[in-house]
């Protein structure tokens, strides 16, 4: 039964991907061909534009992590597909307009002619198609794959509550039924009763034994990541003589990688400052008119590579008398009274961070890297989470893995682990993927949540069953 369900799910996912990409392709070329018949006739233009569309769509499918409804939330899947389609549409459209500059079509490049109306219609239709197909595929997926029963095996109720909040965000996939301490005598029987096992905060020896049990019972395992897990994730399989080893060694970015990364930083910051200059001028004007006595920009000391301190520049989003660089400064919280009404808008759309492009141009920051933290936060977090100091092995960035997959109020430990995953697996290709994935932030409601928001969210975390309370139903 389980194998049949798995195969059916894979077939539905494959059909979804085929139908979706086919409809995106057909919609683009059938509508745009009304004014450009050469793109559907046997011609060089048709072959070139079709190849471009297919290649761009395939590459962006790789960048955004595929279109598997079983692994993503509906909103996340929608944003990934929409961005892939938009980039494929716009790039192919630009290529077509360039190829149309010839004696038979246009004597000059026309980007905003009649074709732009057809392109707008294509995008509107594609948005509707994407939304409709996602709704259909999630309907069948949830009927076919009801939530799996799961339990948390942990060492404390606090850790269980933390994990249960994350599970609650995926109610369509998981049904949390039980929480047990790892020392419970009947822990083996507990694991056998559930499909998915979450292991959190368990000593290495006991965790290894439980992993072996889960593997033998064919259970799905989720391990709460620790620093040692980040180190293991970079290991290479190697055989010495006839014995398998995991080869672990630190790999620093090469001089060539650093040089290219810096060139990318300069290019992106210059292009960004030019493209977003109108937006920044409007934001500066609104800040000046809303509060003529307060500054437009906000400066604050932050930490970057090797603990070097620099002064970050952002648009001011708090009242002029709000604590800034003083010792009383602290990160924004839910319904923070220090944030101005205009500041909330700037924060929601990340406009307040645009001036940091100047920091990137100067070399204080990089486009991709760990988020630069306030000095007060760095000192506090390093005491609570020793791993936090390892984030400073890479220059601070405007975007990064923790900024994309995390939230503003992500815990210091989780933030450190996410940044270490990026640092230990650094590559220029990863940087490109993260730059492209940054756009998905604007589709997430929770990306700018302030500290304290998570305490309001109600989650039903079962009370952890200890060794004294063990029972076998």
Quick take:
The chain is of the alpha/beta class. The protein has helices at about 1-30, 45-65, 75-100, 115-145, 155-170, 185-190, 205-215, 225-235, 255-275, 275-290, 340-350, 355-360, 375-385, 400-405, 410-425, 430-435, and strands at about 150-155, 175-180, 195-200, 220-225, 235-240, 245, 295-305, 310-315, 365-370, 395-400.
Q: Can you give a write-up of this model?
A:
- The protein has 473 residues and is of the alpha/beta class.
- The chain has three domains: 2-144, no CATH class; 148-224 and 462-469, Response regulator (Rossmann fold, 3-Layer(aba) Sandwich); 255-426, no CATH class.
- It is built from 16 helices and ten strands.
- It has helices spanning 2-32, 44-63, 74-99, 114-144, 157-168, 187-192, 204-216, 227-233, 255-275, 277-290, 341-348, 356-362, 375-384, 401-405, 412-424, 428-437; strands spanning 148-154, 174-181, 196-200, 220-223, 236-240, 243-247, 297-303, 309-315, 366-368, 397-399.
- The protein has a four-stranded parallel β-sheet with strand order 2-1-3-4, sandwiched between helices. Strands 5-6 form a two-stranded antiparallel ribbon.
- Strand 5 and strand 6 (243-247) form a beta hairpin.
- It is globular.
